[in-house]
């Protein structure tokens, strides 16, 4: 590989026929433009049986992460979250092409894929940084036993369906409230339209730096969704009286068991997630389009119709 070769990571939902076809087109377009597609080892193995990959690279085998310029994602939000895992620790931004249903994190839809690849080749995009969470688990002796991160949310959930999780919630080193519940969601603005939204939490505009904390089915008078400072440290302690303990999930992809006495601390990560953006679309328009919100009858400040 020459030092001047441009490497574009392609992250694919490889078990869908339409996505595999799209991957073939993107690989061909990158090759024609003098760039090289790179796949994770898992994606390479999945696609090798159905596509002629030729000079396609393998991440971590013949192409180092810091040699990747950008990641193109073909799939839905779950595939974008997987891409964020793959490029974590590098500067490569992520460009999502929605091949799923809602695809809230994706920048564009599949019909605009060819234009998106051309703009990637021309480096005609801007990079938007999204707040991510740094998450630590401490045991009953306050030793750190697990560390991870989250783009959407960190969720403390009960481990047993038939039992309640007993927790005490803390913000910036001060206790706020204790209660029994199904769990607690700690979400970023990016994740405010995911699990947080389903749990009744607030939608937070991406330009607003904040962290949302949403108790799930809490047995308490004071268990409303909270919006706290982006630099606050939010801690959830699993009380000793909890039977069966709990489990930590980050972005629904990484988990860790929480025995009674465990403590989960989430705060802003020093390393944001970088998303490539092609269009300066208003977040309001994205909400309306993705959730199919009714706006009929809107006149607008200048009489315009959306």
CATH class identity of the largest domain:
Alpha Beta
What integer value in Å does the Rg equal? 21 Å
Q: In what range is the share of β-strand residues?
A: 35-45%
Which of globular, elongated, flat, extended, rod-shaped describes the shape? Answer: globular
Question: How would you classify the helix and strand content by structural class?
Answer: alpha+beta
CATH architecture of the largest domain: 3-Layer(aba) Sandwich
Termini gap:
48 Å
If you consult CATH, what is the topology of the largest domain? Answer: Rossmann fold
**What low-confidence regions span 5 or more consecutive residues with pLDDT below 50?**
none
Largest sheet: 6 strands, parallel
Order of helices and strands: EHEHEEHEEHEEEEEEEHEEEEEEEH
Q: What number is the mean pLDDT?
A: 92
Widest β-sheet, arrangement of strands:
3-2-1-4-5-6
Assembly classification: single chain
Strand count: 20
Helix percent band: 10-25%
Number of domains: 2
Supply the number of helical segments: 6
CATH superfamily grouping of the largest domain = Probable inorganic polyphosphate/atp-NAD kinase, domain 1
Keywords:
306 residues; alpha+beta; Rossmann fold; Tumour Suppressor Smad4; 6 helices; 20 strands
Textual characterization of the structure:
The chain has 306 residues and is an alpha+beta fold. The protein has two domains: 6-130 and 275-285, Probable inorganic polyphosphate/atp-NAD kinase, domain 1 (Rossmann fold, 3-Layer(aba) Sandwich); 133-268, Sandwich (Tumour Suppressor Smad4). It has helices at 17-32, 41-48, 77-87, 113-121, 195-198, 283-291, and strands at residues 6-12, 35-39, 57-58, 68-75, 94-98, 108-109, 126-130, 133-138, 144-150, 153-158, 165-171, 174-181, 183-187, 211-216, 226-228, 234-238, 246-250, 254-258, 263-268, 273-277. A six-stranded parallel β-sheet has the order 3-2-1-4-5-6, with helices on both faces. Strands 9-8-19-16-11-12 form a six-stranded antiparallel β-sheet, with no helix packed on it. Helix 1 runs parallel beside helix 4.
